[in-house]
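Record pair follows.
FIRST:
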Amino acid sequence: MTKSNSDKLIPVIQELQEFAFNQVGSMTILRVLGYGLLLLALFDIVETFVPPSFMNPVWEFQTFGAIVERIPVTLIGLALVFYGELQARAKWEFFTVRLLSWLSLLLAIVFIVLIPVGVSNTVRLSKQSYNQINNLSQQQITQAEQVEQRLSQAKPEQIESFLKNQGRSVQASNPQELKEKVLSEVSQAKERIKLQAQANQSTQRLNLLKNSVKWNLGALVTAALFFIFWKTTNWARSK
């Protein structure tokens, strides 16, 4: 190689060295950011599980949803940590990325297992919500029936006197008409209670189903992403 050619290559080599140095600096920044996001995600998970209330379907379902909704931070953190594979890593990182690679597989399995648990809790909460609303409406209907029974046995004059004592205006041409009017109002109130209970049950069921579908599908996607991380980080597990 002539001297002139050598002189021409020197700036090129310097540019490549500078580019490589900048690349190492960028990878370091991204990896530090990744480790930071993983720590923040860990803090979130610990906060979500405290205080624990296992075997409580409400707590389990809400905790499941909270984890799924916060998992993107963990995924981004892992992607940043794995960036650049083994290039320009400190010695302690070789063990760390190997551990995180296996942890990705473990988390993929955990989220797959959580899906049937989420479905089971959805069914349990649906039944529980239905029974609670039904029991409350039955209590209200029973109270209305008791009032209806007492009004049926009461004399029209007693009903008129009772309404006046309650400060309600009495608009009826005779006491019997007033009695029939009040009984009609009680009967309408019973129907409103039934309709309201049905509406509440429908709303609760729809909201529960929407959250269940969103969180269970989210868990499935999360499991797939963790598995892809594990599959594509064979370089981290090789000695």
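SECOND:
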Amino acid sequence: MKPYTVAVDINAPLDLVLELFDDPDNLPKWQKGFVSWTLREGEQGQVGAIADVVFENKGRRIDMTEEVTARNLPEQFDSLYRWGKNHNTVTNRFIAIDDDTTRWEATCVYSLNSMGMKLMGLLFGKKFREQHLEFLQDFKAFCEDGVDVRTGERG
């Protein structure tokens, strides 16, 4: 599967965007299917931090580990996600367009090593990108209007 980049412009100042992004308590508010995030070692959000992350998608549970591999906000925040024999790296960049607008760019590189995931990547690679972009759009709605994906209501 080829690497891809998705981006969204958020009508909020860079400092607020970073504050909301950097708080794991906000994850369920903008990530559909999010079940839990549990820090296993290190300091939350810092290089070397490892957390167990659980999602549920269409009744299927997905357990993965997240490792922060680079942190130089706002220019770079990288995480490595592992599940089974597979992993992906996400590089996040936050750019102040002006005092009230922030662009979030996320580049994702997958390494799909199980036969099932290789087939899924081949057949549904576009869906991976679409789901990633949906996360960014949901985060935008959360930042701008306080919309919580669990209820669809403003917080």
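COMMENT: The two ends are 37 Å apart (CA to CA).
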